[in-house]
């Protein structure tokens, strides 16, 4: 059986009568030690982002507000993931082309990564990505 490209992670909810509280910690929702956190917000209407893959980087994406659709491509198959709840994370390992579409105006997409920013880890050309996965 072929493994699914989309790997969701449940984010434990610790809210109470006062409101919500969600936790991402090592050994829980986070399968790797985090070395960088960034968030994408205020995305303009109609804008799509991403259009790259990483050679080594592992990431956990959590849409902490609003919603966004992510399209993953492994060089052969494409799968879509809808992130519309802060109780659901999406794990994206190396070797996956990702595109982000349909950002809601209030979307805040938080990304936890296992390494610092390194442009050399990016593959930004789709044809180069396809050659990369078919040669590895
Ligand atoms: P990029 O990863 O290309 O964003 P997207 O794929 O969503 O379009 O990053 C956009 C710009 O921000 C690019 O010039 C690199 C820079 N950047 C950093 O400096 N540090 C970071 O951690 C990230 C994610 C991006």
Helix content: under 10%
Terminal-residue CA separation: 20 Å
Shape: globular
Series of H and E elements: EEEEEEEEEEH
What share of the residues does DSSP label as strand, in percent?
35-45%
Oligomer: single chain
Q: Which small-molecule ligands are present, each listed once?
A: thymidine-5'-diphosphate
Low-confidence stretches: none
Strand order of the main beta sheet, please?
Answer: 1-7-4-9-2
Number of strands: 10
Counted by DSSP, the helix tally is: 1
Gyration radius over CA: 15 Å
Report on the structure:
This protein is 7% helix and 39% strand. It is mainly β and 136 residues long. The protein has one helix at residues 126-135, and strands at residues 7-10, 36-41, 49-54, 59-65, 68-73, 78-83, 88-92, 97-101, 108-113, 122-123. The two termini are 20 Å apart. The strands form 2 sheets. The protein has a 5-stranded antiparallel beta sheet with strand order 1-7-4-9-2, with no helix packed on it. It has a 5-stranded antiparallel beta sheet with strand order 6-5-8-3-10. The chain is built from 1 helix and 10 strands. Thymidine-5'-diphosphate binds next to strand 2 and strand 3. Residues 36, 38, 40, 49-50, 52, 117 line the site of thymidine-5'-diphosphate.
Keywords:
136 residues, mainly beta, five-stranded antiparallel β-sheet, 1 helix, 10 strands, 7% helix, binds thymidine-5'-diphosphate
């Amino acid at each position: 059986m072929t493994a699914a490209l989309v790997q969701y992670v449940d984010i434990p909810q610790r809210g109470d009568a006062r409101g919500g509280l969600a936790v991402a910690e090592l050994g829980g929702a986070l399968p790797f030690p985090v070395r960088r956190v960034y968030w994408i917000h205020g995305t303009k209407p109609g804008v799509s982002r991403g259009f790259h893959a990483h050679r080594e980087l592992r990431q956990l994406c959590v849409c902490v507000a609003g919603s966004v659709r992510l399209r993953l491509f492994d060089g052969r198959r494409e799968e879509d993931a809808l992130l519309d709840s802060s109780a659901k994370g999406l794990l994206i390992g190396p070797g996956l082309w990702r595109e982000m579409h349909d950002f809601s105006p209030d979307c805040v997409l938080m990304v936890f990564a296992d390494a610092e920013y390194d442009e050399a880890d990016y593959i930004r050309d789709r044809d180069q990505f396809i050659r990369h996965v078919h040669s590895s």
